[in-house]
Amino acid sequence: MIRLLCIVALLTLSACKEELTQDTSPLPLTVEAVGHFCQMNVFEHDGPKAQAHLGGLPQMPLFFSQVRDVVAYIRLPEQSHEVLAIWVNDMGAEGATWTDPGTTNWIAADAAHFVVGSRVVGGMGTPEIVPFADVTKASLFAAKNGGQVMRLAQIPDAAVLAPVVNDGDSDDADFEERLRKLARTSGD
């Protein structure tokens, strides 16, 4: 009889369990938003931003100072949480500029058209992947700045995971020689 009561109690409790759905609506950018990788305020960086909502972490999405960074994040093998939604600034939205991409003009990343391989540099000083809701606006941006229009799944890993060499970067031989000189100087 006690066993039967326990089973009934468990069934009743499980029937009463309220299913909570995590809100994955985009949040407006505020001064509290910091880039996931750089831990710097996203307003300190030009170009489009991104936010990713992760399963089990409903309090706050991860913000990214560059769209390139969110694409890299979702492709990293170390990324362990389920990605429920990714939002990116629509750079074709009214009023969106490179220095002020907007705080509420979010579009779902899987619906966006991205310009990949253009000459523009994002807020962290690396090549940026530029999102647009309108494919025509993306094509016009690519015609002016170079690059190709792609969907999220088409962006090659090399565009987000490969090392970036900026103008003025030294080659490895130069870096190694400077390290040797430093070691000789500090060892005296």
Strand content: 5-15%
Low-confidence stretches: 15-19
The shape is globular
Kindly report how far apart the N and C termini lie: 85 Å
Secondary-structure-derived class: alpha+beta
Mean of pLDDT: 82
Number of helices: 5
- Indicate the radius of gyration in whole angstroms: 23 Å
Q: What is the helix content?
A: 25-40%
H/E order of the elements?
HEEHEEEEHEHH
Top keywords for this entry?
alpha+beta, 188 residues, 15% strand, globular, 5 helices, 3-stranded antiparallel beta sheet, 4-stranded antiparallel beta sheet, 7 strands
Please explain how this structure is put together.
It is a single chain. The protein is of the alpha+beta class and 188 residues long. The protein has helices at 2-16, 67-75, 135-145, 158-161, 172-186; strands spanning 50-54, 62-64, 83-89, 106-108, 113-116, 130-132, 148-150. The strands form two sheets. Strands 2-1-3-4 form a four-stranded antiparallel sheet. A three-stranded antiparallel sheet has the order 6-5-7, with helices on one face. It is globular, with a radius of gyration of 23 Å. 30% of the residues are buried.
Q: In terms of topology, how is this protein built?
A:
Elements: H1 2-16, E1 50-54, E2 62-64, H2 67-75, E3 83-89, E4 106-108, E5 113-116, E6 130-132, H3 135-145, E7 148-150, H4 158-161, H5 172-186
Antiparallel strand pairs: 1-2, 1-3, 3-4, 5-6, 5-7
Q: Summarize this, please?
A:
With 188 residues, this protein is α+β, with helices and mostly antiparallel strands. The protein has five helices and seven strands, in the order αββαββββαβαα. The termini are far apart.
